[in-house]
């Protein structure tokens, strides 16, 4: 390990080098370019948000429409199903199997 004097010397050199630092000036062209990109990005985000919302609304309308049509079709077909006899009942009616009387 290093002794404490070497560590103190390294710390002092580091602190002295930090004292001589100056603030750097940014390139004005670079600053303008970055600022322009940030402004363009801010304008694009609401447009993407609107597209997503329109797609979501279209999917929701389609979902509600399909559910409405299927409800109507199933309700309409259940009315016809109660009026017609099933295959087993029609067979029993044809051969008089559903009556409890003896037919000798």
Radius of gyration (Å): 42 Å
Helix content: over 70%
Separate helix tally: 3
Shape: elongated
Compute the separation of the termini in Å: 118 Å
* Helix/sheet category: mainly alpha
Count of strand segments: 0
Biggest sheet overview: none
Order of helices and strands: HHH
- Give unreliable regions as ranges: none
Q: How much is the average pLDDT? A: 80
Strand fraction equals: under 5%
Can I get a quick summary?
By secondary structure, this protein is mainly α.
Give short descriptive properties of this protein.
single chain; 104 residues; mainly alpha; 3 helices; 77% helix; 0% strand
List the helices and strands and how they pair.
Blueprint: H1 4-19, H2 28-83, H3 87-94
Task: Please provide a written account of the structure.
The protein has 104 residues and is mainly α. It has a domain at 25-83. 77% of the residues lie in helices and 0% in strands. It has 3 helices and no strands. The longest helix is centred in the middle third of the chain and has 56 residues, at 28-83. The mean pLDDT is 80.
